[in-house]
Every structure is written in structure tokens, then in C-alpha cells.
Description:
By secondary structure, this protein is of the alpha+beta class. It has helices at residues 2-7, 12-28, 37-49, 116-132, 154-160, 163-166, 220-231, 233-238, 276-296, 318-332, 351-354, 356-359, 382-389, 399-414, 422-428; strands at 53-58, 62-69, 74-80, 99-101, 107-109, 139-146, 172-175, 186-188, 191-194, 196-205, 209-210, 245-254, 260-261, 264-273, 304-311, 314-316, 336-338, 365-368, 434-439, 448-453. Helix 7 (220-231) packs antiparallel against helix 9 (276-296). It is elongated, with a radius of gyration of 26 Å.
Amino acid sequence: MTDLAHTVPAGLDGIRADLENLYKDLHAHPELGLREHRTAKKVSDALRDFGYEVVDGIGGTGAIGILANGEGPTVMARADMDALPVRERTGLPYASTVTVTGDDGTEQPVMHACGHDVHVTCLIGCARLMSQTKDAWRGTFVALFQPSEENGDGATAMIDDGLTSKAPRPDVVLAQHVLPYPAGYVGTRSGPFLSAADSLRVTVHGRGAHGSMPQAAVDPVVMAAMIVVRLQTIVSRELAATTPAVVTVGSVQAGTGPNVIPDSAVIELNVRTYDDASRTQVLHAIERIVRAECEASRSPRDPEFERTATFPPTINDEAPTRRVTEAFAAHFGDAAHTMSPIGGVGINLAIQDAVAAANLLADPLYRAQADPARFTRTFNPALVERLQRRRELPTRGSGLGRYDDGIVLIERALDGRVALPPAAARLLSDGAWSRVAGRALGATLGRTLMYGLRPEHVRTPERR
């Protein structure tokens, strides 16, 4: 495995320019789910050029490339291709200006805002390198390009269209996702990693009337408002503090004018959970709250519930994850990390450890230097909260006050006048350091601070 891990990536420098051009092209020409015709053609054409057996049009726009290379395991690598209905405002020379007509007839901007252009580029590069190094490995490599991940129906569409009969059964399936980490950072995690996601559309019914005669109506707007407020108590009051979950109401729609009470309101919400027990509990709680509020409001009809999308949690198998982790450690060294679970629930990005000093400043905008070597573990963000709870640092109400508090805390830590909690001290004692710049909001403090946080500046607290 060590030889293969070095042999295959050795050709990367020779194709890097081509991959960069491909990425820019894909970024400038994003396509929504199940409309990835241009992207799928570029993928299929590239795979054929690399000597793959290509099957395209699976589930509409999905494609696979099969590279059989003798007896051995079958490894499948997957990338998603679709973009999002988002207007790009990056100002990049290759920024998307694409607009399309949506399913509802409205004009929609399109952008690769979730990194699928990167995913496609990386898998194309991997497929090319695998084809160039066939003497170094044996088995079958399958590159799978999935449509419509954002809508949650692309993988199902490929399976329903006979994917299992068109591709060899894999021994392992590998996937990747870009995240807001420093450039050069790679990470793996065994077990639960990405949360399950359920999207629901709830319709509540009232009785319409003129706005001047609310007594003649059953107002679905008030009903929906009460439901939205009550939904916020599910996570905060019905789940244990150690159970990660998120309930987000993303859309509330009702009525067409200011002086008419409508007949109905539509609430769209999203749920994130990590296990079946909490998922079931949260979904049941949503239905219970909606039905109870409708009854309390004298709704003339039962509410309607529609599950618009469902994603299971991502749970990485231990054995293959361990092998990938070992290979990453051998190749990337200190840039390879074990990651925390993410996905809208308890997000604890490792980058937070690096920019923790900026996080201490609470309200200021912050930016850390884009040097992967400096995005290493330093302050734990929980340090501030712990110190404030112990009354070792005053917390003032204004943003400027919190900015000053952050500076004071950093200064006290640097000269040893603050005894850090043991966990935070251990994070600072691993020989790593970072430089973090914090820039204050407001013209009254428009200056930049930059601190080099080094372990020799930190005093481990004595046991009490």
C-alpha cells in the first residue's frame, strides 16, 4: 500500500494545470440537479480518453467509468456533480453568471456553492492517475459521478435505473467533500460523521376573511407563527444536552396581500440528527406540536405533512477508514487529521482551534493567514466561556467591550496571569502555534491585532 500511495500521486504535478482548467470551467458552468448534461459529457469524454469503459445516462445524467486491471479488489470512488440555485458574488474571473428557468417557472441563478466542481475535478484527476499507473496495482477501479445530490434524488435515480447491473459490485466505496478548512488539510473519521437530514413541508389550514374582520377568521398566519416558536423548544427542552440535533424553519408562506387573512399557511423545515432514536423523537415532536397548535387555534382541517427529502446519516466503516487514515498520515504527515462529526449538528471544525484567538474577540471580523502549517491546535474556543463562568474575566455588553475582553484574555494568557483549564493548556502544549488576525467592527477600533501564540507563553495550572 505504501508503494501505491506514492506511485499514483507522483504524476499529479504533470496534470495539475489540466485539472485547474477543468475546475474553472466547471465552476463557470454550473448545472442544477438532473440537468448536469454538459458536466456529464465532459466527465464521460475524459473517462473514455483515459481508457475507461463508460456507461452514461444512468438515472438521467449519472455516469460511471470502469477500469478493469486484472484480479483484485473493486474500489469505487464517487463524486457529485450538481450545483445550487445561488447567485455568485465572489468576483472571480471564472465566476458563474449562469441563470436558468426553475421548475416553478422563475429565473434562478446557479452557482457551485457546495464544492461539487471540486469533487468532480478531484475524481477526474484520480481516474487519470489510476489509468497512468496500471503497472502499480491490480483490481478494478470504478469512478462514479452522481447527479442531483442537493435534491436528494440522484443516487436513487441511478439505482432505479439499474446501476447495480451496470457496475461491478465494489468491495469499498470512497467519497470526499470539501469543507471550510485550511488549504492542504485532509481529514477522516470512523463512525458517524455527517448527520441525517429530513426536510418537511407542513400545511396548516384556517378560514380566510377580510383583514378588518379577524373575528370571522381562523388565522393560519398566527397558527404558523405559534408553531414556529414552539418548534424551537424541541431541541432545547425535549432532548438531552448531550444529544445533538437541529430543527430549522427555513420558509413560512401565507397569503397574497396585507388586508386579507388567508386560508392556509405552509411551513418548510429541516431536521438534522445523528441516530434513529433522536430522529424519531424529533419528527414525532414536530407532528405533535403542529397538531396541538392547530387544535388550539380551532383549525377546520387536519394539518398535512409531506416529507420532501430524506438523507440517512453518513457512517464510515471502521476498517477501510483506518486504512485511508494510515495512507493519509503517511503521505500528508501533519496535515492529516481525525475530524469531528459535522453536518449542521455540533459543528466543531478543527479550524476553530486555529482561529480561537479571533473567536475570543466575539464581535470582530476575523481572518487567519492562509498557511496550513499555522492552522494548528491552540486555544480551545470553550476556554472563554469557562473563564467567564468562573468570573475570571468580566463580560461587558457592547461589542467593543467583548473585543476588549478578548484582548485582555489573550494578554493574560501570554504573560501567564491566567491559569488555563487543563484541557486548554494541553492543547497549547503540543508545540503548535498560530498567528491570528482580528479586526474590530466599527470605526472606533479599526486597527488590527496579530498574536503569535506559542506554548512557552502558557503556564499549566497547578492542581488544586
